[in-house]
Structure formats: C-alpha cells, structure tokens
Amino acid sequence: MSTPKTLWKPPDLGQVKINVDAFAQISRSFIGISLVAKDANGVVVGAACRMAGCFSPFLGECMAVREGVWYALSKGYSNWIVETDALNVVHAIKNPELQSLEANVIQDVHNTLELSRGDSVCYGSRFGNSIAHFLVSFSFSSTHSHVW
To answer: In this protein, which residues make up the domain named RNase H type-1 (predicted)?
Structure first.
C-alpha cells in the first residue's frame, strides 16, 4: 500500500505562500535556489531563481528560506508564509541558538521573522513544492538571476 502524496496546500485567504527550494548540482559544486509565490487561489504572483554559489545543501536551503523572506518583504506582502521541504531548516530557525556554519543565515531569518510580527516559516512536503523544484533546476541553465 502506498502512502498518499501531499500536494500543495493553499494559504489562508488574503495570505501569500512562498515555496522555496535549493538544489545541489554535485558535478558543478553549485547550489541553486528558487521561490514561487502563490495566493489563496493558487495563482502564481511571483517567482525567482538563481545560482547561489558553492555551499552545503543545508546552507543552500537556509539561503532559500532567507531569499523567500526577503522577497515577501520587498514585495510589501502584509500576510505571508514561507514553506520549505527542509524540516531541519525549519527547526534551526525556530531554535536559532544552535551553533553552526549556517548560524548567521539562520539568525538573520529568525530576527526578520520576529520583526515582521506574525509571518512565518513552515515545513511542506516535497510533493507540494514541485514548481520551486523545477525552477531551481532551471537556475543551472543560466548564470543570471531570474525574477518574474
């Protein structure tokens, strides 16, 4: 018996959900990051992808979350949530006292979330993150950042 795959779940009415992803291309030693912003009806209201450099997959996922938070703030969204399929990153952001190479990025996300009052980062299944995963793969085909 197979387990059901959790598909993308829409945010609450009036909220924007930003799905983020990072992907390591081992052959090129690069991490790509992407984000897709959708409203409660599932309409894409924005997207972005870029190659981020040579980092660990964990740091890449942390950077993708930070990119999603910054994107929400830059667009002036008043009610938003960033969703990642990296549960370890969500735990690290909620417990930023952890010491690691990624501590600065984690602390930056944590502090920004505290300042934005009410916005958050949550875990979502990889199956609900397929568009962001596609975009992160696309980021390796170009040396430029893409924002839609």
So the answer is: 32-137
User: Quick one: tokens of 17?
Assistant: 């959900």
pLDDT tens digits, one per residue of 8-19: 889 999 999 999
Contacting residues for 74 by C-beta, under 8 A, at least 6 apart: none
Q: Which CATH number fits domain 16-147: 3.40.190.80, 3.40.720.10, 3.30.420.10, 3.40.50.2300?
A: 3.30.420.10
Q: Cα separation of 41 and 104, whole Å?
A: 35
pTM across the whole model: 0.79
Judging by beta carbons within 10 Å of its beta carbon (0-12, 13-18, 19+), is residue 143 exposed, middle or buried? exposed
